[in-house]
Amino acid sequence: MKILVTGGLGFIGSHTVVELQNEGFEVVIIDDCSNSSEKVLEGISSISGKMPIFEKIDLKEKAKVEDFFKRHQDVQGVIHFAASKAVGESVQKPLLYYENNIGTLVYLLKELSKKDNASFIFSSSCTVYGQADEMPISEKAPVKPAESPYGNTKQMGEEIIRDTCAVNPKLKAIALRYFNPMGAHPSGSIGELPIGVPQNLVPFITQTGMGLREELSVFGDDYPTEDGTCIRDYIYVVDLAKAHVKALQRLLGGKNQDNYEVFNLGTGKGSSVLEVIHSFERVSGKKLNYKIVDRRAGDIVSAYADTKKANDVLGWKSQYTLDEAMKSAWEWEQKVRA
Ligand code: WQD
User: Which atom of ligand 1 is nearest to the CA of 276?
Assistant: First the structure.
């Protein structure tokens, strides 16, 4: 069965391609390589033993999207990762985000709406909850006004899919709201490849550990948490990838209750910034160079997932600990810099 993975050369996309191949799916990747490299294909095939079909297409080009689906009429499902995802950049360049994250989604959904039966998995984010009122955060928590155009594109994306599914019973969709993905494949063949200065905590830590960065700035230790630093739910990327396969199999197997469903994907455990730093120090045996600085604008205090729905309904649960995920991130950083 052929599955299209858009953004399949990216961090979560590439790990999901491997898990799909391990389950026997035939995978075709669309990626515009704006934030990834074709070299990732070697990493994927070195793990799974299978080279996915790859087409370098900019999904903003409607005619190219239409042509792709004419040539690949046997695509049964789509997992849609391709999107711009830097929160700060989205504030500076909102139209780039609305065009790239929303325009492309509309083109994909128009093509899928022409098919007799289509399954669609959407890469969403816990960012849609903003600062939730209750921890852990369940799918029933209200979606709050987005704090960035990036976050808004995830909220709007979910609404566009929901509205499309409401008038198209042949289209089945699941939105997966990720908490904080981290780590790298245990083989060391694929991992996170942030371009430029990493915005996210874990790659900044591992680059500091390698001496690529002078020191980590901890954005505030005066939050109302045990150690004063923000809490997040750091989920291992391989766990996250496996959840995508489970979600796709739910739709392909017709097990879905509604034709639009939402699942939170996290470990259910919150970790503070200092706890993540200590995890790195445990797994690397190195002291991390860091300093406490002012809070980062837009940061929420705490977010970690209520994983009951994904556990019970998807039959998926994260398997790896923070230290195991951090060890994979550290090993990957050392390999990439070797
Ligand atoms: C985590 C914690 C920072 C860097 C973002 C997006 C979210 C998703 C994941 C795409 C926070 C602190 C960070 C640093 C620090 N992206 N931190 N020093 O902000 O929870 O989520 O990335 O889907 O949508 O919002 O992740 O890794 O940036 O920050 O102290 O150099 O680490 O303040 O508390 P975040 P993050």
Answer: 32
Question: Which tokens in the block code for residue 166?
Answer: 């409401």
pLDDT at 234 over 90: yes
Q: Is 224 a residue whose pLDDT tops 90?
A: yes
* Confidence at residue 195, expressed as pLDDT on a 0 to 100 scale: 87
Tokens 């939050």 found at? 223
- Ligand 1, atom 4: nearest CA belongs to which residue? 201
**What is the distance in angstroms between the CA of the first residue and the CA of the last residue of the chain?**
38
Of the candidates 283, 153, 273, the residue with the CA atom closest to the CA atom of residue 204: 273
List ligand 1's pocket residues with C-beta within 6 A: 85, 87, 125, 127, 180, 199-201, 204, 216-219, 230, 232, 273, 296, 299
Residue 91 contacts residue 148 (beta carbons within 8 Å): yes
Secondary structure of 34-83 in the HEC alphabet? Answer: CCCCCCHHHHHHHHHCCCCEEECCCCCCHHHHHHHHHHCCCEEEEEECCC
